[in-house]
Amino acid sequence: MDLLFFFEWLDTSALADISKAYGGVFAVVETFHTSAMVLLGGMILTGDLRLMNVLMRDIPSEVVIRNTEKWFGFALVVMILSGIFMMSAVAMKLYYNVFFFSKMVGLATGVFFFYVIRKPLLNQEHALINPWTLKLIGGTSILIWLSVAASGRWIGFS
Amino acid sequence: MNKKKLEKIAIGLSCAIVVGWGIFWVLQIIDVREMLELAYG
Predict the structure, then answer these.
(1) Average pLDDT for residues A12-16, to the nearest whole number?
(2) Shortest Cα distance from B27 to chain A (angstroms)?
């Protein structure tokens, strides 16, 4: 499916008029985007490293996961909304950038893995789950989100 | 969904992602080595 029509629409939208014309607004939105990214990364690392039994071993993993999941959702919403605004400023450039699509695929994989696999599985008592399964899920989740971050940085160098 | 079934799906998907990630980075390293060989012999 060719998404060119969407990028062309975004490039000429009112959102693009604002993001292209007002550097200050773009900078503020980018600050929210970066902060949300830091929060999301922090929640992922905290939750997954707890699942891997690396940190906060004295706190039950159910407590850590429940708290980090809540803030993950908040950070994801802020990140996506601010990301769409930032995207509108360079929509056509991003359409021709393979690493942008690699980042989007990574993001979709991460969100799918989080809400369809990780969250439903971790809703039960963790003692009922094989510890190696917990470690595998934690490690995989970290790998997915590291790939998203790496693709995001790669956009700037391509 | 049955929790045991979900656990099996999680293990299968995680293994696939980890292996795919490994293959991607091995290919990247091969690419970089070839590029360095072309550039510096």
Answers:
(1) 93
(2) 15
Q: What angle do CA B8, A57, A53 make, to 5 degrees?
A: 35
Please classify residue A130 by burial: count the beta carbons closer than 10 Å to its beta carbon, then call 0-12 exposed, 13-18 middle and 19+ buried.
Answer: exposed
Predicted complex ipTM exceeds 0.85 = no
Question: In chain B, which residues have their Cβ closer than 8 Å to the Cβ of A147?
Answer: 21
Mean pLDDT of all residues in B4-33: 90
pTM: 0.86
Cα Rg, chain B, nearest whole Å: 18
Contact A37, A79 (CB under 8 A): yes
> How far is C-alpha A85 from the geometric centre of its chain's CA atoms?
16
Which pLDDT belongs to residue A62? 95
